[in-house]
Predict the structure.
Amino acid sequence: MAKTYAKFEVPKEIADKSLEALRLAKQSGSVRKGVNEVTKSVERGIAALVVIAGDVEPEEVVMHIPTICEQKKIPFVFVPAKLDLGKAAGLGVPCAAAAIEKAGEGQSQLKEVANWASGKMGSATKQEAAPKTEAPKPAAPKKAAPKKEPKPEAPKQEAPKPEAAPAQ
């Protein structure tokens, strides 16, 4: 049964190259292992490539990773088994996700896998976004600045006229 978080099918040669890039990065670069570490690496924007196992149970454990990778524009791929991913990351146990931060000697494999994954991410995003076309909203009319009305002036009082002195 296909996992809901696996947004696209990864060919075997690309999955193998991503595991090889992970092995080489483990030896000469920098790798993060585990869902929590991968999530932090992606959110900080320092991951160069994220590798996610395709057989994770329950799915909710890694379901958020493809979404945040797309938001941060970080390439990601899926490999068939978490046991293979764990071995490539240098662990003796299965691993659900790993992130390459610095490729080291695996730079050429990383570049090839990242280019392939970026193309898939772009097409998946375009396919999802295409049906959601909306008409542009009309611009809101500008509110006119309130006109300042002159303050009513107080009626001028006339100065008292000097009274004429009575004639004597």
